[in-house]
Amino acid sequence: MTVRKSQSKLTAEEKRAFTNALLELKRTGVYDRYVNAHNAFLMSDSDFGDRVGHRAPSFLPWHRRFLLDFEAALQKVDPKVSLPYWDWTVDRTPSSSLWAADFLGGTNRARDGQVLDGPFAYAGGKWAITVGVDARTYLRRTLGAGGAQLPTKDEVNSVLAMPVYDSAPWNSTSGGFRNHLEGWRGPGLHNKVHVWVGGHMASAASPNDPVFWMHHAFIDMLWSEWQRRNPKSAYLPAAPTANVVDFHGKLRPWNDVTPADLMDHRKFYTFDTER
Amino acid sequence: MNMITRRRAFGIAVGAAAAVGLTACDKGGSAASSASASPNAEASGPALSIPTGGIDEVYEGRRIQITLDPGAHHDGQHMPGMPNIKIDGKELHLMRNADNSWVTVVNHYETFADPISAAKAAVRDLQGANLLPFAPTGGTP
């Protein structure tokens, strides 16, 4: 059984195994297929039409399945690897070990945001951006530039206390836990972290930055924590609803999995905090 | 390129301006108050609207053109006045949110009060880089 660990608890060897597996997926072209797939949904998910991966109730189960697929791809390269999660309520500065040269590298250049050190620096020759919104081919971050702030633990707790999963109109204006965790309303949790990292993470080509997976692994963990704190709350909508995926609706692009199938993460992995 | 050094005033009279944020919507437009629409939008100045003739101006050395596409269809919805943004002639993909705020492909996780604010934020992020056509296909990894 896969155990997902906090990125801050990984050994040097585990960090190396994770980044090496990422580089191998990049080399074989598999990585960029995931970037492209995510972006296709980000671009087509609309408040005014069908939406499945974003601004919709299925934001959480969709990303759970997307991460499971990606983690399986990593494990084909190295069976010992699992997706680490980044708890940005704790590791919340650009000087965190997350951004050190032996892990994701940092932001070394204000002029263009180019990541200059670590395995994903452009000069290393192994991480050229091929699926981006502009012509820059190097990975970029801004890490808190311009006064951007990461969400706080108090803000996370306020959202975890919301008892209703989601509500009509089931989009980026909804009340409820999902839209507040996604961050279109309230303290702006998930979205705010994309903006804080900046560069590719702030764009529609966000998975180009490997921290995407670690951010979403933590969002996924927060979903499971919300379930633990709100045991009587269920996924909504329960019944078929226009433009969105209900509890027993099929999730694109897989079409063979429903939110109901993805409610319990322990079918697939556990978190290090649960051991 | 025909350099334009200041805003080309198509419909400069404020009274004649069509506020895209108010007119572009025919569904769900009142779902949220404008007060909560855009915490990250530019705070300076009054809310910008798009003159009926569009916007054509230079910001930080980049040419921003915004045109209205009357009668556009988006995801099956009739949405009159859907704006198109170009930066130095390259399309900046824009998406409207149900509360009439906006996101672009460059800043996809923060919302802006109007298309010109979104375009200016994109110019700042691009730092001189050119936009590429961004049309991911498929969806299956």
TrEMBL record, chain A:
It comes from the Bacteria. Its cofactor is Cu(2+). GO terms for molecular function: metal ion binding; tyrosinase activity. The keyword Metal-binding applies. Keywords: Copper, Metal-binding, Oxidoreductase. It holds the Pfam family Tyrosinase. The keyword Membrane does not apply. Its EC number is 1.14.18.1. Belongs to the tyrosinase family. This is Tyrosinase. It comes from Streptomyces lavendulae subsp. lavendulae. The gene is melC4.
Automatic annotation (TrEMBL), chain B:
This is Tyrosinase co-factor MelC1. Residues 29-49 are annotated as: Disordered. The lineage of its organism: Bacteria, Bacillati, Actinomycetota, Actinomycetes, Kitasatosporales. Pfam families: MelC1 (PF06236). Residues 1-24 form the signal peptide. Keywords: Copper, Signal. The keyword ATP-binding does not apply. GO terms for molecular function: copper ion binding. The keyword Signal applies. Residues 29-47 have a biased composition (Low complexity). One of its GO terms (biological process) is melanin biosynthetic process. Belongs to the melC1 family.
